[in-house]
Amino acid sequence: MQFSREAYPAKVTTATRGYSVFVQTAAFWHTAPHRQHTRDIGIRPQFKSSRAARWHSAALGYTLLSYLLGWAGLLAGNAWLFLPAAVLLGHSLVIAAYMIHECAHNTVFKQNRHNAALGTALSWLCGACYGRYEDIRYKHFRHHVDNDDVVWFDYEAFFRSHPRVYAVTRGLEWCYVPAHDYLMHALMMFSAFIIPQRRDQRGRNITVLALRLTALAALLWWQPLAFAGYVLAYTLMIIVLRFMDGIQHDYPYHLRLFSDEVSEHKGDAEWEQLHTFSNVISWRYEWPNWLVLNFGYHNAHHAKPTTPWFELPTLHRTLFGHDPDTVVRLRPQLQMYHRYRGYRIFHDAPGLSPKEGRDFLQAAQRAELTGGNAASFLTAF
Ligand SMILES: [Zn+2]
Ligand SMILES: [Zn+2]
Fold first, then answer.
1. Whole-model pTM above 0.85?
2. CA 25 to ligand 1 centroid distance, Å
3. For 214, which DSSP code?
4. Is residue 41 scored above 70 in pLDDT?
C-alpha cells in the first residue's frame, strides 16, 4: 500500500529550535518502551521546514495554552468563567484533534516516529487514546488511498436492530445533542472488548479506562461544575469535528476495515476529487478557517495529503481557482446542520433525493443535503 504520495512541500529546509518540552516528552514516552528505539531518544524532533516550525508550533502552543487555561477556568469554580472556559477547553480539543490528523499525514516533523509520538500524546488530550494511534492513522490512510469510507462498525444495521436506541438517539439529535457520536465515542472507549480484531489491546484498553475514569470520577466528586464543563467542552469538540466531516464526501461506508476487499475506486484520483467537497468557514478571509486548521479545504487535502494545514488555502486556489463555487460556504452548512439534524443517521429527510458528485456539491450549496454524523477520524472503526 502506497501511503505517502509526494513530498509537499518538497523543500525541507532547516531544523528548528523552539519546539516544546511537550513534544520531547511525547517522543520519549513513545519510544522509551521499545528497546530498538532507545538510541533515538536523544534525537530531537525536527520540524519539516521553518514554516512548519512556525505554524505547527503556533497551533501546538495554542492547544496547550488553551487547554491549561480552559481547565484553570473550570477549576476556579467561578460561574462567570464556566462558559468561556468550557468553550476554550473545547477548542483546544478541536485543534488537538486536527493536529492528530496532521501527525497522521506526517506533516509536522521530519521523522515519522516523532509525528507518531506527538499524535499519540495528543490522542490523550482529546480522549482518543483507548485504542492505538496507529489504528487511527491506518483507518485514515485507508480513507485516502482506497477512496472509501472503510469501517468495521455498521451503525445503520445497529440502529435498525435497536429501534429504541435509535428513537432516543434521534430525539437527542433533534435537541442538538450529538448522541450518535456519543455512541461512537462510547464504542471507542471499549473498542478492544467490542472489536474482535483488537482483542490484543485489552490490557491497554483497561489501563486507559482505569486512568481516565478514575480521574473523571474524582473530578465529578470534588468539582462537579468542572466535570460538567469538561462534558460540554468534549461535546463541543464532537460537534465541530462532525460538522466539518459531515459533507466532505458522498461516499457510503463499506465494512472493509479488516478485509482484503478492494474498494472500487481505489487510486482513482479523478473520482476522488469529484466525490470530495470543501466546506469552508470563510471564503473571503483566511483566519476564520484557522479555527479548524483549514480542515474545510478537503479537496486540496485529498489532492496532496502531505500538505500541511497552513498551506491548504493557497493550494486550493492554485488547483481549483478563485471561484467560490468550488466550495460550500458556511451559511448553507449551518442551515443543513440545523434543518436535517434528525435525519443524518439514515439520510432519510423527506423531499431530499440522494445526490452524487457535482450534483452533491450543488445540493450542498443550496442546503439540500442531510450530511452525515459519524465519519470522524478519531473513531477508528
Ligand atoms: Zn476525506
Ligand atoms: Zn487526511
1. yes
2. 31
3. H
4. no
Q: Torsions phi, psi of 341, nearest 5?
A: -65, -20
Centre of ligand 2 from the C-alpha of residue 43, in Å = 27
Return the closest-CA partner of residue 19 out of 103, 109, 93. Answer: 109
Provide the sign of the torsion angle of the four alpha carbons 333, 336, 337, 339, taken in this order.
positive
Report how far residue 129's alpha carbon sits from residue 123's, in angstroms, rounded to the nearest whole number. Answer: 5
Taking a C-beta distance cutoff of 8 angstroms, is the pair 335, 323 a contact? no
- CA 277 to ligand 1 center in whole angstroms: 9
Scanning the chain, the segments in alpha helix (DSSP H) are 21-31, 50-75, 79-104, 112-125, 133-146, 155-161, 163-174, 179-189, 191-194, 202-222, 224-245, 269-274, 287-290, 298-303, 312-320, 330-339, 357-365
375 CB-near residues (< 8 Å, 6+ apart):
149, 242, 245, 246, 248, 249, 253
The answer on pLDDT for 196 being more than 90 is yes
Distance from C-alpha of 135 to C-alpha of 379, rounded to nearest angstrom: 9
3-state secondary structure of 150: strand
In 3-state terms, what secondary structure has residue 254? strand
Encode pLDDT of 276-291 as tens digits. Answer: 999 999 999 999 999 9
- Expressed in angstroms, the distance from the first to the final Cα of the chain is 19
Q: Which residue carries 493550494 as its cell?
A: 315
State the distance from the centre of ligand 1 to the C-alpha of 224, rounded, in angstroms: 38
177-190 pLDDT tens trace: 999 999 999 999 99
Q: Reply yes or no on whether the pLDDT at 62 is more than 80.
A: yes
Say whether pLDDT at 11 is over 60: no
Percent of the chain with pLDDT over 70: 89
Ligand 2 centroid to Cα of residue 27, in Å, is 22
What type of residue is 299?
A: N
* CA dihedral of 359, 365, 370, 371, whole degrees rounded to 10: 90
